[in-house]
Amino acid sequence: MSLKPLAGLALIALGAASLAWPELSYTKDSHDAKLGPLEFTLKQKETIRVPAWVGLAAIAGGTLLVWRRKG
User: Fold this and answer.
1) Could you give the angle at which helices 52-67 and 3-20 cross, rounded to 10 degrees?
2) Distance between CA 30 and CA 43 in Å, rounded?
3) Taking the CB of residue 18, how many other CB atoms lie within 10 A of it?
4) Given 15, 27, 56, 66, which residue has the most CB atoms within 10 angstroms?
5) pTM of the predicted model as reported, rounded to 2 decimal places
6) Beta carbons of 7 and 58 less than 8 angstroms apart
7) Contact 30, 41 (CB under 8 A)
């Protein structure tokens, strides 16, 4: 099996996952402060929204890679 169908299957899976979970959240440390024995850390929750067209485009591109085996 060549690399193109495997890449196509990966694109289809990633596109389906982006349609199922359109938001990705993560936490990052934004500020640290040390005052003697005290330490303060400010954490912010960030959210990335993946548009639906990105997932659909990944599925379409993956389908083309799977179906076009020659080339």
Assistant:
1) 160
2) 6
3) 20
4) 15
5) 0.71
6) no
7) no
Cα(50)–Cα(59) distance, integer angstroms: 14
DSSP 4-63: HHHHHHHHHHHHHHHHH--EEEEEEEEEEEEETTEEEEEEEEEEEEPPHHHHHHHHHHHH
> 36 vs 32, 33, 39, 42, CA distance in Å?
13, 10, 8, 17
Instruction: Kindly state the tokens that stand for 15.
Output: 């596109």
3 state SS of 1: coil
Residue 58, amino acid: A
